[in-house]
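pls read this stuff:
=====
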Amino acid sequence: MAIQFNNTDAVLKQLAGPGAFLTTGKGNNSNVMTVGWGFVGVMWYRRVVIVPVRESRYTKRLLDENKEFCVSVPLGDTLKKELAYCGSHSGRDGNKFNAAGLKTIPASLVGAPLIDGCSKYYECKLLCKLPLDKSMFPDEINEYAYKTNDLHTLYLGEIVAEYDK
């Protein structure tokens, strides 16, 4: 089975900094956050996006409830200010879409919204989630990423729609 990806190198470069938008939820009960780590690849002969979300994040509860998400990737120098805002504020405190001046567009196959103005979009349905534990990592990763014990859960989503704009 041949699995194809479009523009994957550019997406991975963007994830390394300044990031991409992760959205989940439906309608007025949706949220956006910035993800700066993640993967696009193949698992179980399916195209997947893997996004890490910390236990403390408001988005985690919505992901657990909705079991689907979108990743909107603004390639190049676009939407950097908006990515910075969404990565430093919580959806618990208000509507980040409005506060960051983001416009949404409906996804084609999932309920989570997409962020308008991005170059690449992934719509995903949750396949599984894997909570991480500090015992899995060498000390230098724990020291860098998990000093406060706010660990990530990895969300593996099957890509049900992928397109460029």
User: Anything to note?
Assistant: The first strand starts at residue 20 and ends at 26. The mean pLDDT is 92. The radius of gyration is 15 Å. The chain is about 20% helix and 40% strand.
